[in-house]
Specification:
The chain is α+β, with helices and mostly antiparallel strands. The chain is 48% helix and 22% strand. The strands form 2 sheets. Strands 1-3-2-6-5-4 form a 6-stranded mixed sheet. Helix 1 runs antiparallel to helix 9.
Length: 317
C-alpha cells in the first residue's frame, strides 16, 4: 500500500507542478506552438517550391530550348505574336501546369535593359481544346505579367496569385535563369492545387499561404477567400514594421470581435508567407484537455500501483 500511496503522491505532485507551470505561461506556450507550426508548414512549402523550380529549370534548359531551335523557322513564318511550341512531354505529364514561357530582356543599343519579351511558350496538351481562348487570355494578361517580372530579372524567384486565366485561380511562378541580374526568366502558370498539397493541418492550428500582396494561395480550410480571422492576420503581417521580420507570433482580435493567437513565417523562396492561427477559446480548451488527460493518467497510476502493492502483500502473506 505504501508503494501505491507514494506513486500517487509523486504522480499527483508532478502533474500539478506541470499544470501550474503551463497555466502561468500558457499564452507563451500557445504562441510558441503557433510559431513552430508556421515554421514547419513554411518548410513544406519551400520544399515544394524548390521541387517546382528545379522542374521548370530542367525543362527550360532542355526540352523547351531544343524544341524552339528545332521549330524556329516555322515559328518565324507563322507570323504569330507569340511562338507556341508543339507538345512538350514534361509539361503534358503535369496536370497542374498550364504553360511555360521563356521571357528575355537583352540590353538595347544604349546598353539599357529593354522591356521583357515573351520569346516562346509551350502549352499543356490537356488544354489543347481551349487553345484559342487561352491564347486570348494569355495575351490580355501579358502586359500585367511583364511588370511583375522585374524582381525575377533581379535574380529573385517570385510566386504571385493570378486570376486572369482560370476563374479558380492560379499562381504565376517566375524563376530566373542564372544568379544576380539575369537576361532570361522562365515563367509558368500553375494551378493552386500544387501549393495546396504542401499545406496540412497541424493539430488544431489552421494555416494558410499568401503571396507578397497578401492574396490567399492555399489554406487548410480550402476556402477560396480569407475568413475574418485570416484577413485580420494578413493585415497584421503586412504591417511595414513587420516587413523585415522572418517570423513572429501575436495575439489579435478579428473583425467579429473574436480573439485569436496567430503567427507567421516568411518562406525563403518566392516571397511567400505562411500564416497560422487558432481561436483563443480553442487553444485554452486544448490546454484544459491536457489537464484532464493528466488527471486520468494519475488515476491509472494509482490503480496499477494499488494492484501491484496488493499483489505483493498477498505473496508475503
Amino acid at each position: 500500500m505504501f508503494i501505491a500511496l507514494g506513486a500517487v503522491i509523486v504522480s499527483t505532485a508532478g502533474t500539478e507542478i506541470t499544470w501550474r507551470a503551463m497555466s502561468s505561461e500558457n499564452q507563451a506556450f500557445i504562441q510558441q506552438s503557433i510559431g513552430d507550426t508556421a515554421g514547419l508548414v513554411a518548410a513544406h512549402v519551400r520544399s515544394e517550391l524548390e521541387h517546382l523550380s528545379s522542374e521548370l529549370l530542367s525543362l527550360g534548359e532542355s526540352e523547351l530550348r531544343v524544341a524552339f531551335l528545332k521549330h524556329r523557322q516555322e515559328l518565324a513564318q507563322s507570323g504569330s505574336p507569340m511562338s507556341l511550341l508543339p507538345g512538350i512531354g514534361s509539361i503534358d505529364a503535369d496536370p497542374d501546369l498550364l504553360d511555360v514561357s521563356l521571357w528575355s530582356r537583352p540590353p538595347d543599343a544604349s546598353g539599357e535593359q529593354a522591356l521583357p519579351q515573351r520569346t516562346y511558350f509551350a502549352l499543356n496538351a490537356r488544354f489543347e481544346s481551349k487553345v484559342p481562348d487561352l491564347m486570348t487570355k494569355i495575351q490580355l494578361t501579358e502586359n500585367a505579367e511583364r511588370t511583375q517580372l522585374q524582381q525575377a530579372f533581379q535574380g529573385h524567384p517570385v510566386v504571385i496569385r493570378h486570376n486572369g486565366i482560370d476563374p479558380q485561380g492560379m499562381v504565376f511562378v517566375e524563376v530566373p535563369l542564372g544568379h544576380g541580374i539575369v537576361s532570361e526568366v522562365l515563367a509558368a502558370h500553375v494551378r493552386l492545387n500544387r501549393l495546396q498539397r504542401a499545406l496540412r493541418q497541424e493539430n488544431m492550428v489552421h494555416s494558410f499561404l499568401v503571396d507578397a500582396r497578401g492574396s490567399l494561395l492555399a489554406s487548410t480550410s480550402r476556402g477560396a477567400t480569407p475568413a475574418p480571422a485570416e484577413a485580420q492576420l494578413i493585415e497584421q503581417t503586412r504591417d511595414p514594421q513587420r516587413s523585415t521580420i522572418v517570423s513572429d507570433q501575436l495575439r489579435y482580435v478579428d473583425s467579429e470581435g473574436n480573439a485569436h493567437f496567430g503567427g507567421f513565417h516568411r518562406v525563403a523562396l518566392g516571397q511567400l508567407s505562411v500564416l497560422a492561427t487558432i481561436p483563443d477559446s480553442e487553444a485554452r480548451s486544448g490546454l484544459a484537455a491536457i489537464r484532464v488527460r493528466s488527471v486520468v493518467f494519475t488515476l491509472l497510476v494509482f490503480i496499477v500501483s494499488f494492484l501491484v502493492s496488493y499483489g505483493l502483500s498477498l505473496i508475503h502473506i
